[in-house]
Prior knowledge:
Elements: H1 2-54, E1 56-60, E2 75-79, E3 93-97, H2 113-124, E4 135-142, E5 147-150, E6 157-159, E7 162-163, E8 183-186, E9 191-195, E10 217-218, E11 222-231, E12 237-238, H3 243-246
Antiparallel strand pairs: 1-2, 2-11, 3-4, 3-11, 4-9, 5-6, 5-8, 6-7, 9-10, 11-12
Amino acid sequence: MTEEAVPTRRIRLGSHSRARSGPKTKKQSVLLFVRDLIIIFIVALLISFLIKTFLVRSFYIPSGSMENTLQVYDRILVNQLEPRFMPIKRGDVMVFRDPGGWLSPQEVVQQNPLVASADWLMAAVGLSAPDSNDHLIKRVIGLPGDHVVCCNALGQMSVNGVPLSEPYVLLPQGATMVSQDDFDVVIPANSLWMMGDNRYNSKDSRYNGETPGKGFVPIDHVVGRALVISWPLARWSWLDDYPDVFRSVKDGAQ
Length: 254
């Protein structure tokens, strides 16, 4: 009986010990799970921040100057590798910082701390673009050294003597000239000539000659090239740079 009683007691003690250690193990598992979630969140936040800083960034369209290519409140994704590591091409749709005097002063929007914090976090990872109103988006027409003239007898613009047939341009009904006003410019070094696709409703390089930059956009003000319309989903599409339009254009003298 004694020999049988001892193992029975050990089994009970063993069972009791496991019962006591069970909740502790479960609590540890929950803590480890929470820790892993926090680590995943921080890593995801860091990756998103790096992508937004160096690769891709989101902007929304605040005006109709690029219609019908882009509509008001469209959201776009911008490739920030261009022009850092990729050359700018004629026809590219580019986002750039105001060279000075292109935009009217913007009112500071007051936000409560909670909304401001959420907006800051979304902006940090590239999901929000609170500074969209401080940037512009236009199409590159002239590169450094290019001679851009408008308009010929057919109402076309020419670059380095080559007339352009521009399918992306939106004109008012009855209009035949791709620009309401004539111009004749040579693009200086490290600058661009930028125009909106909605030619009769775009305050672009043509109408900023009185600003410090004389209407030219410094290349170092370019944020990147617009790649895709990301929202609304019904308008999701890649943005065309229309290489055939500029294929015959030779480089200008720099």
